[in-house]
């Protein structure tokens, strides 16, 4: 994989913490609130994607989705393929945009 050409945006961060499976992915803003796979629109430009969090109910198999309350155009896009886990609920993640790159800490409550 060559970082900077797109594939690192198209992966996921699977997190299993306190008996809950959570997956962080980048998704097209057109899909905010969508959990049915048949209704998902294809992401055409990875630089315009936003992070989305999917949580899975262990008993029912239901999927819940959490989207950012607000997002801006040209915001930093998370690169899920580039991460470092420091504990069961803490990750260092990397993100980038055309303006630059950033390192951040993701902590699950």
For the structure shown, list the relevant keywords.
0% helix, mainly beta, 48% strand, four-stranded antiparallel β-sheet, three-stranded antiparallel β-sheet, 109 residues
Outline the structure in words.
It is a single chain. This protein has 109 residues and is mostly beta strands. It has one domain. The protein has no helices and 7 strands. The protein has strands spanning 12-17, 20-27, 50-56, 63-66, 77-87, 90-97, 100-107. The strands form 2 sheets. A 4-stranded antiparallel sheet has the order 1-2-3-4, with no helix packed on it. A 3-stranded antiparallel sheet has the order 5-6-7, with no helix packed on it. Strand 3 and strand 4 form a beta hairpin. The chain starts with 11 loop residues before the first strand and ends with a strand. The model has no long low-confidence stretch (mean pLDDT 81).
Q: State the end-to-end CA separation.
A: 32 Å
Helix-and-strand structural type:
mainly beta
- Going across the major beta sheet, what is the strand order? 1-2-3-4
Q: In total, how many domains does the architecture comprise?
A: 1
Q: Which H/E pattern describes the elements?
A: EEEEEEE
User: What value does the average pLDDT take?
Assistant: 81
What is the overall shape?
Answer: flat
What is the C-alpha radius of gyration, as a whole number of Å? 14 Å
Task: Assess the beta-strand content as a share of residues.
Answer: over 45%
Biggest sheet record: 4 strands, antiparallel
Helix share bin:
under 10%
pLDDT < 50 runs, ≥5 residues: none
């Amino acid at each position: 994989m060559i970082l900077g050409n797109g594939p690192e945006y198209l992966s996921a961060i699977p997190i299993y913490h306190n008996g809950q499976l959570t997956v962080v992915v980048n998704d097209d803003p057109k899909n905010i609130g969508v959990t049915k796979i048949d209704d998902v629109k294809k992401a055409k430009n990875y630089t315009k994607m936003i992070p989305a969090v999917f949580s899975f109910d262990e008993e029912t198999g239901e999927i819940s989705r959490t989207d950012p309350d607000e997002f801006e155009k040209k915001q930093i896009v998370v690169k899920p393929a580039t991460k470092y886990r420091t504990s069961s609920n803490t990750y260092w993640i990397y993100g980038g945009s055309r303006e630059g790159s950033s390192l951040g800490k993701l902590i699950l409550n």
